[in-house]
Amino acid sequence: MLSHRPSNVDAVNEKPLVAPNDEPARAGGSPAPLRGSLSPSRAGDFMNCPLLYRLRVIDRIPEKPSREAVRGTVVHQVLEDLFDLPAQARTLEQAQTMLPEAWQKVQQDEPELAGSLFPEPADVQDWLNSALPLLATYFTLEDPSRLEPAERELHVEVTLDDGLVLRGLVDRLDKTSSGDMRIVDYKTGKAPGAGYEQKALFQLRFYALVIWKSTGVMPRLLQLLYLGSGHVIRYEPDEVDLESTERKIRALWSAINAAHESGDWRPNRSRLCDWCDFQRFCPEFGGTPPELQLTENTTI
Ligand code: SF4
User: Fold this and answer.
1) Which end of the chain has fewer CB atoms < 10 Å from its terminal CB, N or C?
2) Whole-number Å distance between alpha carbons of 216 and 232
3) Strand ranges, E, within the chain
4) How far is the CA of 10 from the centre of ligand 1 (A)?
5) Is the distance from the beta carbon of residue 56 to the nearest atom of ligand 1 less than 6 Å?
6) Contacts by 68-72, CB closer than 8 A, 24 or more apart
């Protein structure tokens, strides 16, 4: 299924992992199998740290937004809105003047954002200004006046035969007149170092798999644009590649179910911990995770 969805800071929310209401808790108190959905970001959470996944997806503990993450959302909003303009109006100067309006749009979805991010309202302008170089870098990577995207902020979704729903939000989908598709994703950070490109491409392979399975057409090109460093990663997927991605996703879902069955959502300390908002719940930092609230209707 392909459809549009408004962009916001937390655009690709997972549905709760819910066991069907007519499936009772199993003998011995072991939880019913999970039914749920995966997006690339939530799959990435589990790969990085099972406890992070649990706290974010199952416990659903609210996280404080960071200025960097919200700036990324604002830049994405500008790049989405830019293509509403006539081609000749898609200039860097125009894009930069669109930042305040994009920030207003992002706040419409989360009105409390400004207060939580900026106790000192005077800081907003400096923060918005810090997005100017990102837009300038974008214009060194491609010329939007020469592009007519087929889709922007496209919600993609497919249900696998075992009931697992795969979903995601594609920043941009380009199509040639012959029907070839290119998936484009904007990153406001820097490109990964050598050897980490494949990990970075997992997200776009995931999207390509969903589009292939839901439409029967395999995207021809995957493209990551890094506005923080001015790099582009391009990749042409093939059938073997996407079948392998599907196996990886299924294995990941099995591992999530195994963690659910055993209750073993172990933390995995890494440099990502520096940005983790859950340190107070994490044994690696002297914290204790909250007790899992398991019921037979499993809103775990
Ligand atoms: S602090 Fe690190 S180890 Fe702990 S939950 Fe967060 S990412 Fe995982």
Assistant:
1) N
2) 27
3) 2-4, 37-38, 151-159, 165-175, 181-187, 221-226, 231-235
4) 20
5) no
6) 68/188, 69/9, 70/9, 70/106, 70/113, 70/117, 71/127, 71/130, 71/131, 71/134, 71/188, 72/188, 72/189
- Across the range 38-44, mean pLDDT stands at 96
Same domain flag for 168 and 27: yes
Q: Do residues 26 and 135 both lie within one domain?
A: no
Residue 109 lies in a domain: yes
**Can you state the angle between helices 67-82 and 99-109, rounded to 10 degrees?**
110
pLDDT tens-digit series, residues 125-154: 999 999 999 999 999 999 999 999 999 999
Residue showing tokens 């990551």? 224
Domain containing residue 71: 67-146
Tokens of 207: 């999207």
Shared domain for 163 and 247, answered yes or no, is yes
Query: Considering just the CA atoms, what is the radius of gyration of the chain in Å?
Result: 20
* Ligand 1, atom 4: closest residue by C-alpha: 282
CA separation for the pair 201, 222 (Å, rounded): 8
